[in-house]
């Protein structure tokens, strides 16, 4: 049966059959484990931890070769053609790049495998040995994936670096790992040139683009580097083929530098076996994932979530079309007005997303609905309410034929935003709000597999199954992981708590990574090996197990701050509750132990606040000026209070004072990671003056 049909029928059948059996299915069951005493759960369907889902396959290189030989004539990697590039200047003088992109051009599995093998041979002829490390420093694109696979065919460990990484962290990552070859794009090569004098070991730079910047050519002429295009490396390898040097499961595939929410980034060492265990686990969870899907790739490939997703999609014989967060939809910032975004052209069936992206999709839909008003808005609100009541178990809600009717009349247009064919979404990287999860479920008509994992566990930990309609949880253990809760008495979380065991989350299994590169002290602090040889990672997150074996994240050790009078405030929990306000694009709660109340920095959703001001006749010459107005501050504050009450927050958890910010936080500003997580220390430092004034 076609996966598209499965994607439509499975959620419908599950909804009908599952309503009267909620919370009765055991998704995770207790398991006897070693190590520190705690309460441990495993996947109910897998009594033995899963290492591979492909017979005879134990490395990512083996998986890729198997898929390429099996699906040689099928499409694998697609990239949009660039028709034109324009620069537009806004009223306040800021310039914006606008792109007109065409259709996708595709490479088959066979063509990609040939390029990968040629690139691997080319690396060898450039003088790069298997003992040396390669770094990939670029935005997500087809060449990134091919460079990764080419390196694997020479058993070369790949250091992944976010394209948005700052100069200090970039130099630190390259020098610490003693990288000799950097593979990057034209844009990133210009950054490398600027810090070339600070790089100790780099000998070769391979540019994914043919147009090598003149500044890089000057560095090459000085004899410091050899700079060559990726196409030339492939040509060199094609003319001088060499034998493969394939890795073993225990060999390090990737040293992944976290984008560093605190301090300098840490390099997490991942073996082929580590990553394959997670890839194999997700294969068993997503229904119908066997070769006919189309995946839209736009998250950073320097993030383990995206590396695992693309290796899985390639492993099952499906297609990967590349895009970017700024060209994702028809209304994305970089898309020229009147032209199409990536999702409209590609029409993907599966996607991965971080909560911040899904929050933006939800806000965009709500804004369009509110702008239309009238009958259209009333129809949308009525249809949405009917679907909510159905999902929540009321037999008076829309189901069966009525559900299909609302899908056709109302939600079909919403689904067109992401191409109209999405059948499964994977969300990870941060907690997803229940409101956004429900909204996406209903409007896109697709289940969301909300996952929980860390770079240190190759993104593996838990994953919500497609028939789990609950919100606010992150699912049951994936087949390759045990999840254990251990007591944290200082925070008041114990496995003996009622009605659910609570404690710090510890993850064990073949997906738990080797440790931090050249950081034995930190590795010993958070990695433990028990008496049975099982490797465990202590996450610092606090969770609780539900009766069906599913995990809920309720706190984080580092995010808990004690106020002046001894009350504890969980920063992440409060932020997740308040960010649902329509006025909030991003925010950071700040708690000071020397004060009895919290304050917050609010990055304001510009269209929403401007629309509010316009309706009330509030004059302003710039958005920054509007953010300073007392009326605007009071309106946003009232919205936060409303969201706090809905989430049943305590009074002390609601920010008593707020500062509205007009400029967004992006990875380029250094205030959020590439996965859009807050970099608290960087934000505190950048806005120290504003935070001080809030406490005056």
From TrEMBL:
Q: Does the keyword Signal apply?
A: yes
What Pfam families does this protein's entry cite? AMP-binding
Alphabetized PROSITE patterns for the sequence: AMP_BINDING (PS00455)
Question: Catalysed reaction(s)?
Answer: a long-chain fatty acid + ATP + CoA = a long-chain fatty acyl-CoA + AMP + diphosphate
Outline the extent of the AMP-dependent synthetase/ligase domain.
97-517
Instruction: Output the PANTHER family linked to this UniProt entry.
Output: ACYL-COA SYNTHETASE LONG-CHAIN, ISOFORM J, LONG-CHAIN-FATTY-ACID--COA LIGASE
> What is the name attached to this protein's record?
AMP-dependent synthetase/ligase domain-containing protein
This protein's species is Populus deltoides (Eastern poplar)
């Amino acid at each position: 049966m076609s996966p598209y049909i499965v994607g439509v029928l499975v959620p419908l059948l599950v909804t009908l059959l599952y309503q009267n059996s909620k919370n009765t299915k055991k998704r995770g069951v207790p398991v006897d484990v070693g190590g520190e005493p705690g309460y441990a759960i495993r996947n109910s369907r897998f009594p033995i931890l899963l290492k591979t889902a492909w017979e005879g396959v134990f490395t990512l290189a083996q998986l890729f070769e198997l898929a390429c030989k099996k699906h040689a004539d099928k499409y694998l990697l697609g990239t949009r053609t660039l028709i034109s590039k324009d620069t537009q200047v806004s009223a306040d003088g800021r310039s914006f790049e606008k792109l007109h992109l065409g259709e996708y051009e595709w490479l088959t599995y066979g063509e990609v495998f040939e390029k990968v093998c040629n690139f691997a041979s080319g690396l060898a002829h450039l003088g790069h040995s298997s003992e040396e490390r390669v770094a990939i420093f670029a935005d997500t694109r087809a060449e990134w994936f091919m460079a990764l696979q080419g390196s694997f065919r020479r058993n070369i460990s790949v250091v992944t670096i976010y394209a948005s990484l700052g100069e200090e962290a970039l130099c630190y990552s390259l020098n610490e790992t003693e990288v000799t070859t950097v593979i990057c794009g034209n844009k990133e090569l210009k950054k490398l040139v600027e810090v070339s004098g600070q790089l100790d070991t780099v000998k070769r730079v391979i540019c994914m683009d043919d147009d090598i910047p003149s500044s890089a050519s000057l560095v090459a002429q000085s004899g410091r580097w050899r700079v060559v295009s990726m196409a030339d490396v492939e040509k060199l390898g094609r003319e001088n083929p060499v034998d493969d040097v394939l890795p073993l499961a225990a060999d390090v595939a990737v040293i992944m530098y976290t984008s560093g929410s605190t301090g300098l980034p840490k390099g997490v060492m991942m073996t082929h076996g580590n990553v394959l265990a997670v890839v194999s686990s997700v294969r068993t969870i997503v229904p119908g994932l066997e070769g006919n899907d189309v995946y839209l790739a736009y998250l950073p490939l320097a993030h383990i979530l995206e590396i695992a997703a693309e290796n899985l999609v390639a492993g099952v014989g499906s297609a990967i079309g590349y895009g970017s967060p700024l060209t994702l939809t028809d209304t994305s910032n970089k898309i020229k007005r009147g032209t199409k975004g990536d999702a409209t052209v590609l029409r993907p069936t599966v996607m991965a997303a971080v909560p911040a992206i899904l929050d933006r999709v939800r806000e965009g839909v709500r804004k369009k609905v509110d702008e239309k008003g009238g009958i259209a808005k009333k129809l949308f609100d009525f249809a949405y309410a009917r679907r909510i009541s159905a999902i929540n178990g009321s037999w008076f809600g829309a189901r069966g034929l009525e559900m299909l009717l609302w899908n056709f009349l109302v939600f079909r247009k919403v689904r067109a935003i992401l191409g109209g064919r999405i059948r499964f979404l994977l969300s990870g990287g941060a907690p997803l709000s229940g409101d956004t999860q429900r909204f996406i479920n209903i409007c896109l008509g697709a289940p969301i597999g909300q996952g929980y994992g860390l770079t240190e566990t190759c993104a593996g930990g838990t994953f919500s199954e497609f028939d789990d309609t609950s919100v606010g949880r992150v699912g049951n253990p994936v087949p390759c992981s045990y999840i254990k809760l251990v007591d944290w008495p200082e925070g008041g979380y114990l496995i003996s708590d009622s009605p659910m065991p609570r404690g710090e989350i510890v993850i064990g299994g073949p997906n738990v990574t080797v440790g931090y590169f050249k950081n034995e002290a930190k590795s010993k602090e958070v990695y433990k090996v028990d008496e049975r040889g099982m490797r465990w990672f202590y996450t610092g997150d606090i969770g609780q197990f539900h009766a069906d074996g599913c995990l809920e994240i309720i706190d984080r050790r580092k995010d808990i701050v004690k106020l002046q009078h001894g009350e504890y405030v969980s920063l992440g929990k409060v932020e997740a509750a308040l960010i649902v306000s329509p006025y909030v694009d991003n925010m950071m709660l700040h708690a000071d132990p020397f004060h009895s109340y919290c304050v917050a920095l609010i990055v304001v959703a510009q269209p929403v606040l401007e629309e509010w001001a316009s309706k009330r006749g509030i004059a302003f010459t710039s958005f920054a000026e509007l953010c300073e107005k007392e009326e605007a501050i009071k309106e946003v504050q009232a919205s936060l209070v409303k969201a706090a009450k809905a989430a049943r927050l305590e009074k002390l958890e609601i920010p008593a004072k707020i500062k509205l910010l007009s400029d967004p936080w992006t990875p380029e500003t250094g205030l959020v990671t590439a996965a859009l997580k807050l970099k608290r220390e960087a934000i505190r430092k950048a806005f120290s003056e504003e935070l001080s004034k809030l406490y005056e």
